[in-house]
Write a structure and sequence with these properties.
The complex is a heterotrimer of chains A (329), B (291) and C (307). The longest helix of chain A has 18 residues. Chain A has a single domain, classed as Rossmann fold. Chain A is an alpha/beta fold and 329 residues long. Chain A contains 12 helices and 12 strands. Chain B is mostly helical. Chain B has one domain: MetI-like fold (Orthogonal Bundle). In chain C, 78% of the residues lie in helices and 0% in strands. With 307 residues, chain C is mainly alpha-helical. Chain C has one domain: MetI-like fold. Classes of the chains: A alpha/beta (329), B mainly alpha (291), C mainly alpha (307). Chains in contact: A-B, A-C, B-C. Chains B and C meet through α5, α6, α10, α11 and α12 of B and α1, α7, α8, α12 and α13 of C.
């Protein structure tokens, strides 16, 4: 097995907040990400799913080094990720790149997209002449399925899918090995989503890219991922092979998520509707963070926080009752 | 046939031109251009030296009110040519307002960038300064500072530059934070770009139109502040002359020679009005989001 | 809410403290008041005596501490010109300033708000354009120019009103009109754009679409919502009352705080200038707090504590 490209161990990001007024409120801690660990090997895809506010995006930003860690460690090729903005961090941008949810916001509206695709080369001093950089940008545009005439266009003149291809091209021109995709398709039309996903899969096959693929679209995640991690309130609650995880979820939260996937055929399947909203990440319930909404919670769940434990089929789950409920509903 | 068919085309071209360049805006642009020409070419344009006395021709009325073409806008109590003084005053007032606005824009934008870049304590400090600036009317602060520090032109211009920096700082900070957090600036930084590249090549050109529109608001404000202080005798000092202190000194001759103050007053109003009109027009053209 | 208020008050106090500090240091650093105020040929011993009696021979931080301690007890020093307490000098001018600024303030609201609403409701009509023209003219015209034009017309040409002084009611009219006109212009423009903003909102279309008469749409939906930003700007205008009066009081020789400030500045009367700065800052800060509170009261969105 190849060396891990990315090792995240116990990533934690807490925010100090004040509750009830800035001056006389009491200090509290918002646990955006609370002890998340995973590894990612070259050419593989880790899917990260969960409700909005569960810490997916914060995790992505931690992986990129855009946010300082409260505790934990990020290693890239075995090297601890340096502080954002430092020279070494900037060099490492050649290894890790990002694709954004809203490509229009991620592009500079005043600069032709071709020049924006070329810009990373100038930033990192790659290539000696403008002509050389231009040729490279043209080649990359072609590989993401755009044509030469798109080079001189401005972001607002392109469609959503084309913009996302530009963002991809701009990231890929640095020949990164890891691409963090934060909801890369959720802002696109459904008809375009599949195209972009297929493009991502092609590029992975051709270039050996690793993806950290963040989405709340479980079906897309299942389609692209080699491994899936389900997050709830800043923690991973279940992780494993996507097919097994989605066909037979063990954690009650995963079960609820999976049961919410719309299905085309009229299958006889019970929909699990969760009670209430996810709790405020400032007041994470004691014990298992999910127990308040969990349909099968017992007293023990309130007392003790479950840790990720491996199951017999190789997946991991953080639930006291998971072993009993393997096999699903 | 050709004449008929080309008519609607011409009309539409004509109306499209008027839509892009409304007549009022054209007049305003022309006036501002004239002021710039006067400010830059004051030495060649003024018929007399601005402080040349002609004691035999004191308080002469302008042409059309019994005056002669020799002193087209009349003369003041010392027989100085009002037109020549007006031209020199325009130069001084325009220069002060121009540099004042430039200083405010540069200072404010820089501080806004600094606040947005560092966040935390630095941002808190700058926000505190913005609050402070907004909590005391600047005219009062300027009055105090000028009177106690005495009054050189350099200090005065610097003071005008401190007038509205907080407007730029607010704009630059707000737009930069949003560009950093979920926009292009964050994406560029993520590519490994230096701060210089992020702010200089990307953020600044993107917020430039908003800043320029703000300049059309602060430029008239600066002219009004300058003229107000000069009117009170605390701004530009004789022998130099600005529009405000022309009005201030002309005030004593309000009953006998109202032209001395009416011409500079008209120039102040027309200039501030023109820039406001241009500002509205620019805002519609450059930055529809600002409305 | 209590926490918010406390925080607001703390910031207000901090601002006032900064103003006091700023005033003290800027003014002291600008030069030796003894040399400024005594005549050039005063004997050195009388200059030294002057310094001693005003505490100017102490190190500046000692002077500052003494100043702050005294300020906290309400003693803002004595005028260096006539030796009377500065605060007394300033306070006795307050009624004069209020006598012109309060009626002017009423005038601003009485003209500016209705004009702005009317212009917005008749958008792009002749009346709208005329209102906006006056409004733009109103705030691109310096107040001293307006004041002098009014004097030229009503005092010099027509002889109806006195051009300066404070002997009677007639003297107050021109200053009030000058102050009121400029404020009304700003307010009209602001009210108009607030109103247009509200009228463009979906809930206004929804209200018309459900068959409400236009009059009721305006009075029940548009006006209350447009009132929120308009109240804010009116509140901020309260804070600038004194500053706005500086120029106008000077033109009309009206014996208010503004004129006192100009005279004190010309005389380099430190204590008086500092006291006026403090008074101005306190008015601004207080009115800002009141605006915030009123804002919370009239805007239901602010009532339920966010987050």
């Amino acid at each position: 097995m190849s060396q891990p490209l990315l090792e995240a161990s116990q990533l934690t990001r807490h925010y100090k907040v004040r509750r009830g007024g800035r001056l006389f409120g009491h200090a509290a801690t918002l646990r955006a990400v609370d002890g998340v660990s995973f590894t990612l090997r070259p050419g593989r895809t880790l899917g990260l799913v969960g409700e909005s506010g569960c810490g997916k995006t914060t995790t992505a930003r931690l992986v990129l080094g855009l946010l300082p860690l409260t505790s934990g460690e990020m290693r890239l090729d075995g090297e601890t990720l340096p502080k954002a903005g430092s020279t070494r961090w900037r060099e490492l941008r050649r290894t890790v790149q990002m694709v954004y949810q809203d490509p229009l916001a991620a592009l500079d509206r005043r600069i032709a997209v071709g020049r924006q695709v070329m810009e990373p080369l100038a930033i990192h001093g790659i290539g000696t002449s403008t002509v050389e950089r231009r040729d490279k940008a043209m080649a990359i545009l072609e590989s993401v399925g755009l044509q030469a005439h798109h080079f001189v266009r401005y972001p607002h003149e392109l469609s959503g899918g084309q913009r996302q291809r530009i963002v991809l091209a701009r990231a890929l021109i640095l020949e990164p090995r890891l691409l963090v995709c934060d909801e890369p398709i959720s802002a696109l039309d459904v008809s375009i989503q599949a195209q972009v996903v297929n493009l991502l899969l092609d590029l992975q096959a051709k270039m050996g890219l690793a993806y950290l693929f963040i989405s709340h679209d479980l079906r897309m995640v299942r389609q692209v991922s080699h491994e899936v991690a389900v997050m709830y309130l800043g923690r991973i609650v279940e992780r494993g092979d996507p097919d097994r995880l989605f066909s037979a979820p063990t954690h009650p939260y995963t079960q609820a998520l999976v049961s919410a996937i719309p299905v085309a055929a009229r299958q006889r399947r019970q929909r699990l509707i969760l009670k209430g909203d996810p709790p405020n990440p400032v007041n994470v319930p004691t014990g298992c963070a999910f127990h308040e909404r969990c349909p099968i919670a017992v007293a023990h769940c309130r007392a003790e926080t479950p840790l990720l434990r491996p199951l017999a089929d190789g997946r991991e789950v953080a639930c006291h009752l998971a072993a009993a409920s393997v096999g699903g509903l | 046939m050709t004449a008929v068919s080309s008519l609607p085309l011409q009309r539409s071209r004509h109306s499209r031109f008027l839509e892009a360049w409304p007549p009022l805006t054209l007049v305003a642009l022309a006036w501002v251009a004239l002021m710039l020409v006067v400010a830059l070419g004051a030495d060649w344009l003024s018929p007399f030296h601005f402080s040349a006395l002609d004691l035999r021709a004191r308080l002469q009325p302008p042409v059309g009110f019994g005056g002669t073409w020799k002193h087209a806008l009349g003369t003041d109590e010392l027989g100085r040519d009002v037109l020549s003084r007006l031209i020199v005053s325009i130069r001084i007032s325009v220069l002060i307002a121009f540099f004042g606005t430039l200083i405010a824009a540069t200072l404010g934008t820089t501080l806004g960038f600094v606040a947005a870049h560092f966040r935390g304590r630095v941002e808190w400090l700058i926000l505190m300064m913005i609050d402070f600036q907004a909590s005391v009317p600047f005219l009062i602060v300027a009055l105090a500072v000028l009177a106690f520090f005495g009054n050189s032109l350099v200090l005065f211009v610097a003071l005008m530059g401190l007038n509205s920096w907080e407007r730029y700082a607010r704009i630059a900070r707000g737009l930069t934070i949003s560009a950093n957090e979920q926009g292009y600036a964050g994406a560029i930084r993520q590519l490994g770009a230096s701060s210089w590249r992020v702010y200089g090549i990307h953020v600044l050109p993107n917020i430039a139109s908003t800043l320029i529109v703000s300049m059309t608001i602060t430029f008239p404000e600066t002219i009004l502040l300058e003229s107000g202080l000069s009117f009170l005798g605390l701004g530009v000092q004789p022998p130099l002359s600005s529009l405000g202190n022309m009005v201030g000194y002309g005030r004593e001759y309000l009953t006998r020679a109202s032209w001395i103050l009416l011409f500079p007053s008209a120039v102040i109003i027309l200039t501030t009005l023109s820039i406001s009109i241009i500002g509205d027009w620019l805002r519609d053209r450059l930055d529809p989001t600002l409305r | 809410m209590i926490g918010y208020l406390a925080q607001r008050l703390l910031r207000a106090l901090l601002t006032i403290f900064l103003v006091v500090t700023f005033a003290f240091f800027v003014l002291r650093l600008s030069g030796d008041p003894a040399l400024l105020i005594m005549s050039v040929d005063a004997p050195p011993e009388s200059i030294a005596a002057f310094r001693k009696s005003w505490g100017l021979d102490q190190p500046i931080w000692m002077q500052y501490l003494a100043y702050v301690v005294h300020a906290l007890t309400g003693d803002l020093g004595n005028s260096m010109r006539d030796g009377r307490p500065a605060i007394q000098l300033v306070l006795e001018r307050v009624p004069s300033t209020l006598a012109i600024t309060l009626p002017a303030f009423a005038l601003k609201i009485a003209i500016g708000v209705p004009a702005g609403i009317y212009a917005a409701l008749r958008r792009n009509s002749f009346a709208d354009r005329l209102t906006m023209l006056f409004s733009v003219a109103g705030f691109t015209m310096p107040s001293f120019v307006l004041a002098l034009l009014l004097v030229l017309v009503f005092s010099v040409k027509l002889g109806w009103l006195p051009s300066s002084g404070s002997d009677g009611l007639a003297n107050a009219i021109l200053p009030i009109v000058t102050l009121g006109a400029a404020g009304a212009a700003i307010l009209a423009r602001f009210t108009r754009s607030a109103m247009l903003e509200v009228l463009g909102q979906p809930y206004i279309r929804a209200a018309s679409a459900k068959g409400l008469s236009w009059r009721r749409v305006v009075t029940e939906h548009a006006l209350p919502n447009a009132a929120i930003p308009t109240t804010t700007i009116i509140g901020f205008m309260v804070g600038t009352l004194i500053a706005g009066a500086v120029v106008v009081e000077s033109v009309f020789a009206w014996p208010g705080i503004g004129r006192l400030l100009v005279v004190a500045v010309a005389n380099r009367d430190l204590a008086v200038v500092q006291t006026i700065l403090l008074l101005v800052a306190m008015t601004m800060v207080t009115s800002n707090i009141v605006v915030d509170l009123v804002y919370g009261w009239i805007d239901p969105r602010m009532r339920t504590a966010p987050k």
